[in-house]
Design a protein that fits this description.
The chain has 391 residues and is of the alpha+beta class. It is built from ten helices and 18 strands. Helix 6 runs antiparallel to helix 7 and helix 8 packs across helix 10. The chain starts with a helix and ends with a helix.
Length: 391
């Protein structure tokens, strides 16, 4: 089969699928409209599937003509709780937005499914197509794994589209790492419990607002003074809540944040030290701290041999000039990490850069947009990887 020709022939269909999905963004692990749309597409292709994660996750299967290995391809389908501000006529109006490109991931995998299914007689082995909910939050990979989506799978591949590396402002580049791809992601909550009082009598209080200011500085010193500068990590405090009026010192203040790391030992150290610093800072000022830490997504790391499969697929499609070797991980995170923890595989990037008023807006921005012209490349790469693995 001429994979590139078949992918290009489906380019308009990929764009339509993506735009249809873009209009109906849903968040988390409950994607009834999105899942129903994908299911109808698979039914029209005659591809069998089962649903998972309460009906929102989809596992489709295509069997080749002969016995062989099983390869999985994964796309995430969820969106973000962001109100869209793009100028496109297919933008969302429901208060959510596909501002991370998952609509394109799903559309590209649907097109790959069609090509693979039409040419399954050429394959020895099986292909599993994983359409996953909840990548942004709370994580759909783990429940799909728990429900058996990786049973019998020998290798897995996935891709992410968009402006991934700031230095690459050109669309259509295929970015591949032989090692770490993305950082871990964890979250924490700290509740400072002090004693409220009138603002005119601060000496009668144990002021959780003042303590919060000290605590935030102390937590940031963990990264600045306790972590190796050559060992990438991030601590970000993103939410501070407390108080009901400007003349009342509140009883409590709540702080929430997240961490990122590329080293498991550093990841664990940061978690341990945030708890210690939080409790000791509160204690020295007479307050107490309630601390909760949430171990979220693991470090995303490719299998080197599987990374070479992606590179070879690009070369086989005459896209060798578009290959960029990723030499350092990005600090974003992905629950693709859980698939790669279980099965050898690779997660790669496809650059897609669209300007608005001379600016490029990144992922999770209300004006995030994609250059749709490169969608066929993602589909072609998926199919070529399958052919090389099972052909």
């Amino acid at each position: 089969m001429d994979i590139m020709k078949e992918a290009k022939d489906l380019q308009d269909r990929i764009v339509k699928w993506r735009r249809d999905l873009h209009k109906i963004p849903e968040i988390g692990n409950e994607l009834p409209k999105t899942s129903s749309y994908v299911q109808e597409c698979l039914k029209s292709m005659g591809i069998p599937f089962v649903t998972m994660v309460g009906g929102s996750g989809i596992l489709a299967s295509i069997n080749g003509a002969g016995q062989g290995k099983t390869i999985a391809l994964r796309a995430d389908m969820d969106a973000l709780p962001i109100r869209e501000e793009t100028p496109v006529d297919f933008k969302s109006t429901n208060g959510n937005m596909h501002s991370c490109g998952h609509d394109a991931h799903t559309a590209m995998l649907l097109a790959a499914a069609r090509i693979i299914n039409d040419n399954k007689a050429l394959l020895k082995g099986s292909v599993k197509l994983i359409f996953q909910p909840g990548e942004e939050n709370p994580g759909g990979a783990k429940p799909m794994i728990d429900e058996g989506c990786l049973d019998g799978v020998d290798a897995i591949f996935g891709l992410h589209i968009g402006l991934i590396l700031n230095e690459i402002k050109k669309s259509g580049k295929i970015i591949v790492s032989h090692d770490k791809v993305m950082a871990s992601r964890d979250a924490f909550k700290i509740k400072i419990i002090g004693r409220g009082a009138h603002s005119a009598s601060p000496h009668m209080s144990i002021d959780p607002v003042a303590i919060a200011a000290q605590l935030i500085n102390n937590v940031y010193l963990i990264k600045a003074r306790e972590c190796d500068a050559l060992d990438p990590s991030v601590i970000s405090i993103c939410m501070v809540h407390g108080g009901t009026a400007n003349n009342i010192i509140p009883q409590t203040v709540e702080i929430e944040g997240s961490t990122r790391s590329l080293n498991q030992q550093t990841r664990e150290k940061i978690a341990r030290r945030i708890e210690q610093v939080s409790k000791s800072t509160c204690e020295v000022h007479g307050a107490t701290a309630e601390f909760n830490y949430f171990w979220d997504y693991d470090i995303t790391k490719n299998n080197p041999e599987m990374a070479d499969f992606v590179i070879q697929a690009a070369k086989d499609l005459d896209l060798g000039d578009d290959i960029v070797i990723q030499t350092s991980a990005v600090m974003g995170s992905e629950d693709m990490s859980f698939f790669l923890n279980k099965v050898p595989g690779a997660y790669f990037f496809l650059s897609s850069v669209a300007e608005q008023d001379g600016q490029v807006f990144g992922h999770h921005h209300p004006r995030f947009m994609l250059d749709e012209s490169v969608f066929y490349k993602g589909t072609a790469l998926f199919v070529q990887i399958v052919q090389n693995y099972l052909g």
